[in-house]
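Q: What structure does this chain adopt?
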Amino acid sequence: MLDRNDPMPGPTSDHRPGHGQAVYGISVAAELAGMGAHSLRLYEQHGLVTPARSAGGTRRYSNDDLTRLARISALAGQGINLAAIARILDLEDTNTALADANTALRHSNAALTAERDRLRDTP
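A:
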């Protein structure tokens, strides 16, 4: 049995949810994002953010969603329309995926090079 002073089990020791863990209802997410719940619904309608859904269908936002909402807010604050924001976010997501794939390929290449060199040095 856990004592109230014992750390809670889970991915983080500070009791905060992980970045992708959808825990915030729409009203809490709206408050944390500094915008109205109607804006969150509008952004979802335009495909800019896709919150998880509980078994009962309630929207659940994660810290990653809040970060995305902050980016949407910044772009909208620059006068960019929602269609352009959608395109910008899509390009940013693609760029991130490509950068991650490139990093993985560089690591794989380094490992293969090291293995080749090891085999070359083996009598």
